[in-house]
Amino acid sequence: MRRLWEIFFVALKLGCTSFGGPTAHLGYFQQEYVQKRKWLSAHDYGQLVMLSQFLPGPASSQVGMGVGLLRGGVLGSFLSFLGFTLPSVLILILFAYFSKYTEFKMDWIHGLKLVAVAIVAHAIFDMGKKLLSTKWHWLIALLTLITVLTWLNPLAQIVAILIAACLGFQLLKKSDEGNTSKLVHIPISKTTGIVLLVLFFVLLLGLPILAALWHLEWISMIEKFYLAGALVFGGGHVVLPLLETQFVQSGQISTSDFLAGYGMTQAVPGPLFTFAAYIGMVIAGVPGAIIATFAIFLPAFLLVVGALPFWISLSRIARLRGAMAGANAAVVGILAAAFVHPIVTQTIISTLDIFIVAVFLWCLIRWKIQPYLLVLLGIVVGVIFYT
After folding, report:
1. Helices then strands, each counted (H, E), the chain
2. What whole-number distance in Å separates Cα of residue 193 and Cα of residue 15?
3. What are phi and psi of 163, to 5 degrees?
4. Which segments cross the bilayer (predicted)?
5. CA separation (Å) from 88 to 33, 312, 375, 386?
6. CA-CA distance, 154 to 91, in Å (whole number)?
7. How many CB atoms lie within 10 A of CB 158?
8. Pairwise CA distance, residues 276 & 230, whole Å
9. What tens digit of pLDDT does each residue of 224-283 get?
10. What are 96-146's pLDDT values in tens digits?
């Protein structure tokens, strides 16, 4: 029980401090779960990140669910999700409630975006040291970086990982022999994994049928949010047009309310998929917010928990270690590409920004300051320099 509470409160801390979008979240996770607490190795963390790139849904939330699963079983996975999403869900519910009466000035948030830049840069540097051990690793990471930056398509990441795995199978058979997974026990069986994966497809096919047969608002809401979570690759930004089609064009929420909520979602910590809580709150109050949140994250939960036993087993097969090493190198390249665009290109807008990010990086590398303290420093910087 103590371990489960620890999973929840660590995820809750991350949910309160992880600003900057999914790539930044992965940086915060790497700092907390790998470097500080050593709940899993850099290799195993790379496996989780890689799996999240293959699956539809919110990548960072899926990684958090995977960490919770490995640490505390299915309940640990749920508590990890709950802790990470709870802060932003509560903020967005309150925002939806008060937005009709109050205008929020959020210029100081830019300081937190600069913190995210430093966190991601440090995480990429640390993962690169541990996962890129030969020139072939570096070459694969570089090719992935170039591919993802030049081919602007949600499928680019999946294709890059598959190509990297093929290159790794040929080039890295011997170089990765000692870098095997240190995980001794997967908390769930493959049979349980199959049941969860089957449930994912049953809901995917069955919810539209139920919504067509029974014209109930809550069934329709579950169906729309579940499909959004199940069919979208590329993270929270990609789900925006689908949700706009489902709820704005149907007249359930106005365009101005929709954009206001999405803008607020960019400003709060935690996963972007919690935008669903805002939409649900506007449409049907607190019950709607709860239904929307669980419906949009349910596919991610079923997929990552169902697939993880098979994924880790693959990483332990000696003949596939080279392929997994190549895919891990690709993960570093993908994170580096996301760091360049959109994190740097949409955050660094002045010389002052560059200087502040450099100071934050110095705090991380030289003084090893904890990320949550850096977040507090980012708030102070934002208030002083950007308001």
Report:
1. 16, 0
2. 27
3. -65, -40
4. 74-96, 108-127, 139-172, 192-213, 225-243, 275-308, 320-340, 346-364, 371-386
5. 21, 31, 15, 23
6. 29
7. 15
8. 14
9. 999 989 987 655 666 776 788 788 878 888 887 887 788 788 778 899 899 999 999 999
10. 988 766 666 667 778 888 988 898 898 888 888 888 989 999 999 999 999
